[in-house]
Amino acid sequence: MELVCPIDQRCSDQIAALLRPPSPPLVQEYFEQLISKRQCQGIKVKQNGEFGKGLFAETDFEEEKLIFKDQMLVGAQHPSNKIDCLVCSYCFKFIGSIEQQIGRRLYLKTLGMGISSHNGCESNSSDEDEDEDDHFGHNHHNSQNGASSSTIPLPTTAVESLMNGELALPYSNKFPLPSIVSCPGRCEEAFYCSKLCAEADWDLFHCLLCTGEKSESCSRKGLLKFIQHANETNDIFLLAAKAISFTILRYRKFKASHLSKQEKTASIILGTDPSLLLEAWKPISIGHKRRWWDCISLPDDIDASDEATFRGQIRELAFTSLQLLKEAIFDKECEPLFSLEIYGHIIGMFELNNLDLVVASPVEDYFLYIDDLPHPEKKEAEKITQPYLDALGEDYSICCQGTAFFPLQSCMNHSCCPNAKAFKREEDRDGQATIIALRPICKGEEVTISYIDEDLPFEERQAFLADYGFRFQLCMDGWATKGSEELIDSNWTGSKR
Ligand SMILES: [Zn+2]
Ligand SMILES: [Zn+2]
């Protein structure tokens, strides 16, 4: 029997209002504000058709020039990657010191937590390395068998001296990192590069999702259960929880400022104000959404005749996760956010627009620097550093990896012959997306990126694009998204729906 979410029934009108695509003028206003706030004046978001958005150059860009940087709306490091890289939970910069990064990783490795086998740091495309038997996608959790086979373990004392700062590695002062700031809620799971990042994260997302003693969640025990379930099934639930927490906290802020204005006129609103909830939801409303269980692609090993069962199982999994989240952070005034319909659409938004969050590792830079030293210095340094490199093995260069939603980048259309790419330059050391021109771009031209590996065979490219909601006829070998307009209904042309 099909499970029924009571909130879906109770709040159907409000849910429909939240899921209604925002009007084109509202979308335009949102992006214009965003672009001016980010000071990336060289671009403009244009809308064609009901859902089609595209990003256009407002000025000429030379090859390899920065087009814009995009701050994520919501993002998270993959749980398995937390063993490899200690980064700020808000801006995703590496924190601590080279010694702490190496020591912590070796320490966690000796605890048997294993280093994840993924080292796709150079890739900006979406997840392609899902486990064969993992039907839910995005599952990057602890792979015990992932540790490199060719590592040489170190004595515990050598690891400890790195962790507690007794041992300074040669030349590590050339790679200074911000010192670690703890979570104000004392959870010992979130760490920051600065007080500013700690406070911003707390106010925007974390105060409801912190498992520490100062958490503002209704049940820390419930929260722990929710997190455990997400880690065991699909870490995309953690991202969805962040989106919900973000909306609740915005709603409360709007309501508080609304009330303080109302007090002056002596009228007080009681209960939920639906218009405030809509306003709080606005940044999330901009992202294109479909229900997760409707848009997730059918795994290869599942027969088409079992498709309905598969989609039903995905829906059930989301429902289980939602009930755990509800126990942890439910807010009656924001009840529609806890409907399965909204939860499914938020997860679907990440499924359709998910972009990799990648930050290069300073540990990699450090070992490359040692390797590049002139001969006598190199030999001297390697006497100390080599055992650590051997202990880390091939995975020494693992970067910070996660998933994020970038509002501007999500407006960019795909082309198999793109004129731009997501690329981190030497100075880009945090979780922002950086878009660089691949060739000269003229004012008025659409800026496109490739969502997939352009060298893949045609059928595979189409399969990947189908996941993103592209129409199949698109991107025949080398077609730019423009130019195909006469051939296909223009609403669909090269645009994400
Ligand atoms: Zn930070
Ligand atoms: Zn915390």
From TrEMBL:
* SET domain segment(s): 41-452
**Extent of Acidic residues compositional bias:** 125-134
| Entry keyword Aminoacyl-tRNA synthetase | no
What is the scientific name of the source organism? Answer: Hibiscus sabdariffa
Keywords (A to Z) from UniProt = Metal-binding, Zinc, Zinc-finger
Q: Which SMART domains match?
A: SET
Q: Which InterPro entries match?
A: ATXR2-like, SET_dom, SET_dom_sf, Znf_MYND
Q: Name one Pfam family in it.
A: SET
Q: Polar residues bias: where?
A: 143-152
Q: Does the keyword Nucleotide-binding apply?
A: no
Q: Check the record and name the PANTHER family matching this protein.
A: HISTONE-LYSINE N-METHYLTRANSFERASE ATXR2, SET DOMAIN-CONTAINING PROTEIN
Write down what this protein is called.
SET domain-containing protein
